[in-house]
């Protein structure tokens, strides 16, 4: 089956969760969460859960363990904690939970970021993978980074990613 056939058989709407990894953001000032919910909603996707999670590996893992068993949930997007500072723990929390990784996501994201920012793009550790037939995508906390990932990678492929993760 060709890529186009796969894509045509992919769901047009997915059920998703947004996790903002931060010790300082609130729902009122969470711009990345607002953007994710707005853009996914505009594209016909359904929000199942939204939470701001402490920037602690155990808090991130606990929230994922709470969400993964939910049958209706297909995608989990995290924002924050993907940099190189000692506070950035999202990748360490999520990676061991992934049954399959999608290295191309991070590679493509860094390439697109490089086109906009140059060599600083190497400091993002954005990742994606599959756990329990759910697509998990970990993005930086930057509004510009989330916008770039949404427009150039996630929204064009999310249905296809879900189709493949659930086959």
Q: Could you give a quick summary of the protein structure above?
A:
By secondary structure, this protein is of the alpha/beta class. It contains six helices and six strands; from the N terminus they run αβαβαβαβαββα. It has a single domain, classed as MoaB/Mog-like domain (Molybdenum Cofactor Biosythetic Enzyme, Chain A).
Structure description:
The protein is globular and about 45 Å long. Helix 2 links the parallel strand 1 and strand 2. By secondary structure, it is of the alpha/beta class. Helix 2 (31-42) crosses helix 6 and helix 5 (103-117) runs antiparallel to helix 6. It has one domain (3-165): MoaB/Mog-like domain (Molybdenum Cofactor Biosythetic Enzyme, Chain A). Helices cover 43% and strands 20% of the residues. It contains 6 helices and 6 strands, in the order H-E-H-E-H-E-H-E-H-E-E-H. Strands 2-1-3-6-5-4 form a 6-stranded mixed β-sheet, sandwiched between helices.
Question: How do the strands and helices of this protein lay out in sequence?
Answer:
Elements: H1 3-8, E1 15-21, H2 31-42, E2 46-53, H3 57-67, E3 75-79, H4 90-94, E4 100-101, H5 103-117, E5 127-131, E6 134-139, H6 143-165
Parallel strand pairs: 1-2, 1-3, 3-6
Antiparallel strand pairs: 4-5, 5-6
Helix pairs in contact: 2-6, 5-6
């Amino acid at each position: 089956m060709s890529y186009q056939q796969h894509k045509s058989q992919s769901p047009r709407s997915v059920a998703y969760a947004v996790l903002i990894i931060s010790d300082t953001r609130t729902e009122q000032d969470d711009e990345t969460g607002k953007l994710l919910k707005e853009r996914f909603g505009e594209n016909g996707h359904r929000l199942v859960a939204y939470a701001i999670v402490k920037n602690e590996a155990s808090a991130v893992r606990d929230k994922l363990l709470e969400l993964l068993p939910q049958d209706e949930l297909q995608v989990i997007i995290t924002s924050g904690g993907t940099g190189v500072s000692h506070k950035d723990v999202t990748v360490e929390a999520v990676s061991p939970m992934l049954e399959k990784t999608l290295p191309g996501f991070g590679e493509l994201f860094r390439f697109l970021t490089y086109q906009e920012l140059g060599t600083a793009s190497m400091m993002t550790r954005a990742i994606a993978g599959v756990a329990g037939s759910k697509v998990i995508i970990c993005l930086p906390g930057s509004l510009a980074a989330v916008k770039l990932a949404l427009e150039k990678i996630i929204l064009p492929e999310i249905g296809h990613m879900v189709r493949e993760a659930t086959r």
